Amino acid sequence: MKSDIELIDANGKRLDGRTNDQLRDVKIEAGVLHRADGSCYLEWGGNKVVVAVYGPREAIPRHTQDPLRAIVNARYNMAAFSVDDRKRPGPDRRSREISKVISEALEKVVLIDLYPRAAIDVNIEILDAEAGTRCAGLTAAGVALADAGIPMKDIPVGCAAGKIGAETKDGKVSGGHVVLDLGKEEDNFGDADLPIAISPRTDEILLLQMDGHLTVEEFNKAMELAMKGCHDVSKLQKDALINKYAADVEEVE
Ligand code: CDP
């Protein structure tokens, strides 16, 4: 979508003052819900996300069971009050799509073969949405799964990069800038968004989607930025888990 907003200035400063390779602030807390087996609260820029994990437990109804492995049911839900215009409650096409791609990404790292006929439920609740909620939700899900003690090859993490500013105020098309972690205006009025999720230990791609157009060079640059963003957020995921378990140990002592 095109707009009159100048998303990036001549000095490469973005609307919120970030440089092209700068993430929004990310805060992560593990183990915030008492009734869930594992949980996480995450803030990423203006996004606020809570994830609750239940399981592994017997998959019900029984026809959903796989005799060889567990199924991972991620359910992404946006609260009605999470967006500017009230969102109609309940699943829609977008939330079904996001639930599906996140479930598939998580199944690539969870050791599902260990739990035949089981289900692992991952409830992702978006309380406040400000662009990049699928990456924020998946990142929080990674922490909540680890907090639930579910065996995984790695803690999955997501981050997006994109392209902004290809069209200037006077309508002329310029090159555009490849930037890390699009904010709300950048997502609404930018030219492309490339959310990815990876296993940071191996850099295996778990999720890759693209909205808009990028040249091959721009795509490679966006991948490089998003990968770096994933690795930076991965450190924060581990810190959140260490903080939670350090606090638990202190309590026991
Ligand atoms: O959130 P994400 O970037 O993963 O997905 P998107 O479909 O590209 O949505 C971008 C943003 O649009 C969301 O983060 C919300 O801020 C906003 N949005 C909204 O305002 N109302 C909706 N029904 C869906 C999305």
Describe the structure.
It is a single chain. This protein has 253 residues and is of the alpha+beta class. The protein has a single domain, classed as GHMP Kinase, N-terminal domain (Ribosomal Protein S5, domain 2). Helix content is 29%, strand content 28%. It has helices spanning 93-107, 133-147, 184-189, 216-252, and strands spanning 26-30, 38-44, 47-58, 71-78, 118-128, 157-164, 177-180, 192-199, 204-208, 211-212. Strands 1-2-3-5-4 form a 5-stranded mixed beta sheet. Helix 2 packs parallel to helix 4 (216-252). It is globular and about 60 Å long. It starts with 25 loop residues before the first strand and ends with a helix. The model has no long low-confidence stretch (mean pLDDT 94). It binds cytidine-5'-diphosphate. The site of cytidine-5'-diphosphate has 13 residues, from helix 2 and helix 3.
Strands, helices and their partners?
Blueprint lengths: L25 E5 L7 E7 L2 E12 L12 E8 L14 H15 L10 E11 L4 H15 L9 E8 L12 E4 L3 H6 L2 E8 L4 E5 L2 E2 L3 H37 L1
Parallel strand pairs: 4-5
Antiparallel strand pairs: 1-2, 2-3, 3-5, 6-7, 6-8, 8-9, 8-10
Helix pairs in contact: 2-4
The structure holds cytidine-5'-diphosphate.
Cytidine-5'-diphosphate binds next to α2 and α3.
